[in-house]
Write a structure and sequence with these properties.
two-stranded antiparallel ribbon; alpha+beta; five-stranded mixed β-sheet; Arc Repressor Mutant, subunit A; 3 domains; single chain; extended; 526 residues; 22 helices
Length: 526
């Protein structure tokens, strides 16, 4: 066959990844709280967007339809389940605004298209940044020796109004009172800056000396003073040093306790007999030493942590029906609902506008209509996927983790007639509140472990749960080895290898049978 060059003209169809479609797909991945933050930004930028509750309050003659509470709700009957259906929201007030339930145009591309994740994160929440202070950014000992210069002062005003001080501020306040020499203050500040959040020295004294351009002999006396600061145990080099500082403050660092600290690895290995021999004490003394160590704080700086706890807000609720089955509904409290204010658009359009203003209003109208439709598609997609997950994991909700079925993304994708990538985006960072607790939607997707006989395979999560229950039921005289766990699971119909049991046990942070036997004997010994 001869090779030749020629020109061909072909007409093909291919999906186009428009910026709006990129954002619509990105909206599927956002949990409700991040979605609300994104919508708030759109409300500030787009004059045609309004909150639904605001327009409902201001619209003259608008009816308050109580059936709105049923929007975003689906039901799953048991045991035979029909395909999930979704109830549309209430009819909008007759004022001409466009609601999220407005039918999507057939010309718009669906969200379950297999596109590559190549778009940019245009609306990721910005991470807060804080400037770090470097006490040795300039020459530490070359400046003026006037008091108060070369180190940071504590914001006493902020502390006076009730703001809890940080560990750094707490130590700097003591530094300014107890140490008056300017050189020692600068060294003290450098030592304070080198602490980690638990109160330990994160760098060596040699590194601090190189940073400040001084000798170790100048730093050591300052470090001795700082190690007496409150809270007791700060500026320790390691855990043993931290315990020694706290025991010394209590006048309990006798030779036997020092020997205990020097051999604390024996305690970690639960080798009580060897620890007793190293300390030269009897069993009762070892028990008292262990009890005394439990009263100490291994992280003295933890009391100054002021991180705000971020509570997980569920995106979906699952409630049991009185006659069997389940009710699946979206969390409407955190789900933003917006409308297009057509009255305002009509009022502005009736005036004489320049071409630039007309183009601006048209772009805002198009963006507002897209956002309303995208939010509606997102809600329907999440509800549809969640309904199918509940349908296929019905026995989990009824009987518990031991009855969790193996499930993969493709199973849900085929059932709801969506692409697997869409199901992955929908279940990412989404949580569901169930009668059995709060779970991430990804939790219900587990790999399958085959059965010993011809039968239904087992979920890897349910097998891990069985392993945990078997080990928790152990006694000091009956510690199960991995081989014995394999025998028990195989008798229950689970075809599993010993290395798989060991892998699951390590994932559950459960020690080996030898370590567990030693731990139980140590507890019985004490």
């Amino acid at each position: 066959m001869a090779l030749s060059q020629r020109l061909n003209l072909r007409q093909t169809q291919a999906p186009v990844m428009t910026p709006q479609l990129q954002q619509a797909i990105k909206l599927l991945q956002l949990p409700n709280l991040e979605l609300a933050a994104f919508v708030e930004g759109e409300l500030e930028q787009n004059p045609l967007l309004e909150r639904e509750d605001l327009l409902n309050e201001t619209a003259a003659g608008a009816d308050n339809d109580d059936s709105a509470a049923e929007a975003g709700t689906s039901e799953v009957d048991a045991p035979e389940l029909d395909s999930g259906e979704f109830t549309d929201g209430p009819e909008p007030p007759d004022v001409g605004e466009l609601t999220q339930r407005e039918a999507a145009s057939e010309s718009d591309p669906p969200l379950d298209t297999d596109y590559e994740n190549v778009w940019a994160d245009d609306f990721q929440p910005a991470a807060a940044s804080a400037d770090t202070l470097n006490p040795a950014s300039e020459s530490a000992f070359g400046g003026s020796s006037s008091g108060g210069q070369g180190f940071d002062s504590v914001d006493v005003g902020a502390m006076a109004v009730g703001q809890a001080p940080s560990l750094r501020e707490h130590l700097l306040a003591q530094l300014n009172v107890d140490i008056t020499d300017q050189r020692e203050r600068l060294i003290g500040q450098a030592l304070i800056e080198s602490l980690n959040e638990d109160g330990y020295l994160a760098t060596t004294v040699d590194a601090i000396a190189d940073q400040l351009g001084c000798t170790v002999a100048e730093i050591d006396p300052v470090l001795v003073k700082l190690r007496c600061f409150d809270p007791v145990g700060v500026f320790a080099r390691d855990l043993v040093d931290c315990f020694a500082l706290q025991l010394g403050e209590r006048d309990r660092l006798d030779p036997a306790m020092q020997a205990f600290l020097d051999n604390i690895d024996l305690m970690a290995n639960h080798d009580i007999a060897a620890l007793q021999s190293a300390c030269g004490v009897d069993r009762e003394d070892i028990a008292e030493m262990i009890a005394e160590l439990k009263m100490l704080n291994p992280k003295p700086g933890s009391a100054f942590h002021h991180e705000v706890t971020q509570w997980v807000s569920p995106d979906v609720f699952v409630r049991a029906k009185a006659k069997g089955g389940w009710i699946i509904e979206l969390n409407s409290e955190t789900l933003p609902r917006v409308l297009v204010n057509r009255h305002y658009y009509a009022e502005i359009s009736a005036k004489k506008l320049s071409s630039q203003d007309k183009r601006y209003m048209q772009e805002n109208l198009q963006t507002a209509r897209w956002l309303v439709k995208a939010l509606d598609q997102r809600a329907n997609t999440i509800l549809k996927v969640a309904t199918e997950i509940v349908r296929q994991q019905d026995t989990f909700f009824e009987k518990g983790v031991a009855h969790l079925k193996p499930l993969v993304l493709n199973d849900i994708a085929q059932a709801v007639e969506m692409h697997e990538s869409t199901v992955s985006r929908v279940t990412a960072n989404k949580y569901v509140m169930t009668p059995r607790g709060l779970f991430e939607l990804k939790y219900f997707f587990t790999t399958a472990i085959s059965a010993t006989e011809a039968g239904q395979s087992h979920s890897s999560e349910s097998v891990r749960h069985q392993i945990r229950e078997l080990i928790e039921a152990e006694t000091a005289k009956n510690v199960l080895s991995d081989d014995r766990i394999v025998e028990i699971l195989r008798s229950d119909g689970v075809d599993i290898a010993r290395r798989t049991v060991a892998k699951y046990r390590d994932a559950l942070r459960i020690p080996s049978s030898v370590q567990r036997r030693r731990i139980k004997r140590a507890h019985a010994y004490l």
